[in-house]
Structures
1.
Amino acid sequence: MAFETFQRQRARPSDDPYVTIQRKGVISLNLSAFEALESPETVELLYDRGERLVGIRKVDPSVEHAYIVRGLGGRTTTTWLISGTAFTKFYGIDTEAAKRWKARIEEGPMLVVDLKEPGTEVVGNRGRKRLEGATSPVT
């Protein structure tokens, strides 16, 4: 037998800011998006109904409507989460499937996501197994 060693290649973090609206409304930021917002402790969420634009802007933690930005995975995190469930429900933003958009940076700084764009559907490992009807390989 001629076995080969599989050498997993990790995806390189993107230099572009990306925002994902996950199922149920959690909003995630990649490292570039987090840094574009000047590494915020808290943000405010904005919405332009006419243009279907989501805005995310750094605010002081004392602001009453501030949302906490928390890192996922400890000290070396490259993903940050914002609990946006109430926001997405209030504005009727579709969260049936997780979708990722490349965000643009505007003055403030503010990240802007254009929901008129289709976005890229994101399926994690658990979602892939469910979609494929996979079962555990252990017998």
2.
Amino acid sequence: MTKPRILLADDHTLFVEALQKVLEPEFTLVGSVGDGRALLDAAPRLAPDVILLDLSMPLLNGIDAAQLLRRLVPEVKIVFLSMHGDPTYVTEAFRAGASGYVLKRASAAELIQAIWAALHGQIYVSPLLAKGVLDPLLHQRTSPSSVHATLTLRQREVLQLVAEGRSLKEIASILCVSVKTVEFHKTRIAKQLGLYTKADLTKYAVTHGLVSA
């Protein structure tokens, strides 16, 4: 019997190495990537059955990466493996197309259970999460406090890269657009959020999970 193929997306090397040892008996590990942009490149090429995806990753966060993956590899199952248990993050992960959400402090057995549930077309939510809080949120169309309800995908991409300290020229190169386009998006973001300094924009990005503190 062919083992399901797993792609790991996490920027913490030691964690990925430990995870590989846990998963290898039941799954085929086709690769690992350390940022969201690399994930978008690797997923179509490696054709995994399941992607284990961290929420906070450089260049492109996990939720926005998941939205783009739905277009690139619509058949792949996405299971978030994150330290963030905030119901808003969890809700956005499922809206982005996740099949499962597991906290990093969960047991190896739970993670394997979540992967198999995803492979069988089921939804898995870690019992460590407050499902009583999560369930109502999953049925709401938008979350008022969510950055995903406030900014477009492109605006979130620009905001994350600004918060990571990238120059306008670097951002333009990463997103394959002109510097003027980046400046336009940055100006629109500032006006929409009412935040006009880099420090304030960075604080907002950290608060809403686009970048790690």
